[in-house]
Amino acid sequence: MSRGVFITLEGRDGSGKTTQIKRLAAWLARRGHEAVLLRQPGGTTIGDRAQAIAEVIQPALDAGKVVVCDRFTDSTEAYQGGGRQLGSKVVLDLHRLICRGLQPDLTLLLLPGFESSLARARRRNDRVESETGRNENRFETEHDAFFRRVWEKYREIAAREPDRVVLIEGDLTIDEVYEQIVESVSERIVTLTQKS
User: Fold this and answer.
1) Is the CB of residue 12 less than 8 Å from the CB of residue 117?
2) Contact, 21 vs 37, CB < 8 A?
3) Any idea of the CA torsion for 45, 46, 48, 54, to the nearest 10 degrees?
4) DSSP state of 34
5) Cβ contacts of residue 115 below 8 Å, gap of 6+?
6) Residue ranges covered by each domain of the chain
7) CA atoms in the 13 A half-sphere facing the CB of 148
8) Given this model, what pLDDT does residue 57 score?
């Protein structure tokens, strides 16, 4: 049995990842690929990335499945390394230790314009608060400079790893983003499964 394929979707809050993951999973299912969906942090009892790899990601890959993960190490590097200014080295060193070097086969980086994605994320936070009474408060506690550093770090990651990261940027419609995702995945999924 061939090894499965590990795909991650990355991007700032408000980039549309949740919508696109659902559409991608449906697209994969129509083509006979069983997709395992996962969100990081989360997806396991305590939400630990090493636990997620051991209990969910690696077994699914070993079984020949496609794993689609909402965030992985790139988000940690962008938010902690860039946004919190810890630097990339400490994040990547920790990743190598905790994840034993596991890297996605393909990363789809959704990067709409800075202002539009920030506004969308704030609207979503307001909607969640009105529906649930729960306010994550992350947008009021962080300044725009923090989110600008996150955005810039994501661009830096894409430039550093063009073979793995497909950058889908600009203020595109949901369908335009989906078309680019499908094109990228369909180009790579056959190649990746043939390599195994």
Assistant:
1) yes
2) yes
3) -30
4) P
5) none
6) 5-195
7) 4
8) 94
- State pLDDT tens for residues 10-48: 998 778 899 999 999 999 999 888 899 998 765 444 448
Are the beta carbons of 95 and 73 closer than 8 angstroms?
A: yes
> Which residue's structure tokens are 């990842």?
17
How far is the C-alpha of 66 from the C-alpha of 25, rounded, in Å?
9
Q: Which two tokens stand for residue 127?
A: 């909607």
Per the CB < 8 A criterion, the answer to whether 154 and 160 are in contact is: no
User: In Å, how far from its chain's centre is CA 77?
Assistant: 12
106: helix, strand or coil: strand
CA distances, 4 to each of 39, 42, 111 (Å) = 18, 21, 26
Place of tokens 């396991």: 44
Domain 5-195 has CATH 3.40.50.300: yes
* Cα 33 from Cα 163, distance rounded (Å): 23
Identity of the amino acid at 136: E
* Dist. CA 109–CA 8, nearest whole Å: 8
pTM of the full structure: 0.83
> Strand, coil or helix: what is 36?
strand
What is the C-alpha separation between 189 and 140, in angstroms, rounded? 40
Angstrom distance (rounded) from CA 152 to CA 81: 11
